[in-house]
Amino acid sequence: MHWKILLIASTGGLMCLDRIVLQAMISRPVVAGTLTGWMLGDPATGLFVGAMMELFWIDHLPIGTYIPPNETMVTILAVSAVVLNGPGPSGTVQREAVALSLLVFLPVAYLAQKGEQVLVMLNERLARQAVTAGEEGNLRAISRLHGRALGRYWLVSAGLLAVLLAVGVPLLGWFLANLSHPVRTALQLTYFMFPVVGIAAALKAFSQKRALHVFCGMYLAAVLFLELLQSP
Questions:
Q1: What's the rounded Cα separation, in Å, for the pair 228 and 45?
Q2: Given this model, what pLDDT does residue 89 score?
Q3: How far apart are CA 125 and CA 104, in angstroms?
Q4: How many Å apart are CA 173 and CA 192, to the nearest integer?
């Protein structure tokens, strides 16, 4: 368990780094979730959770000076917590586990967003030092400053992931083992409501015409997809 948490935290820090460096879409939830699930041996769960998170944050992109909520970190945490707690009695992923993990970790997106804003302010000092080094023609110093900024971002992201996984995975397992029947039923219903909210957010972002027809079609497709994932 511990080495898996370290693995996910380290690679998760690199995926979060894609938000500000390459921006090769590796940090997008549908990709980050699938990669996380694959590393833990369950890419299907990673794809499903990532797809739901993609719908939630599809209109939040790091363009210009805007720093969106860190949907990458939420996806990595949710997928890891579900997979590491293992399948249910039926041998498939528990719907209540997926719903509970998303509800527990969603606030992390805004916590990490605040952390990124602090890092941006800290990097302004490095940027001024880089300008001074450029005026002096010291290219090696500029390279070191760039490396320091990237290393700081990775260290903060990986460290936060490691702490939250170390606390969140066993906590989620304890909650799942002690859920009352009404709460378990409510979480199972919430599991099916997440795609509804996500699709609504996507439709609002794109302002599609005949939104009701598109919404119904996408919701039906999402429900069928969920059932296919749950089928043995």
A1: 11
A2: 52
A3: 35
A4: 21
Residue reference for tokens 């300008």: 131
- Spatial CB neighbours of 21, under 8 Å, sequence gap ≥ 6: 150
The runs of H, that is alpha helices, within the chain are 2-17, 29-39, 43-56, 71-84, 95-105, 108-135, 139-177, 181-206, 211-230
Query: Per residue in 189-211, is it b (16+ CB within 10 Å) or e — as a string?
Result: ebbeebbeebbbbbbeeeeeeee
Structure tokens at 140: 């090696």
pLDDT in tens, 58-68: 767 666 667 78
Query: For tokens 């693995």, what's the residue?
Result: 7
User: Of 79 and 199, which is predicted with more confidence?
Assistant: 79
Tokens of 32: 């980050």
AA identity, residue 219: Y
